[in-house]
Amino acid sequence: MRRTTASATEASSGAGSRCPLLSARELADFLGVPLNTVYIWNHRHQGPRAHKVGRHLRYRWPEVEAWLEARAVDREV
Prior knowledge:
Blueprint: H1 6-13, E1 22-23, H2 24-31, H3 35-44, E2 51-53, E3 56-59, H4 61-70
Antiparallel strand pairs: 1-3, 2-3
């Protein structure tokens, strides 16, 4: 039976190319909004999709970027 190392398993599954999750504080800092705003958005289901990790909220970069893109303002020239 062949054993694989953790690094070989991660490389084959693409885990090495994954972006780290954002904390609520990091998201607030990135967006330039108060931390409490991020928690209110989560409570009202208005902000980027949050994931519970234990008792903490975490956010995925692609979901944050998609949420921002959906809120882009179209300007007519």
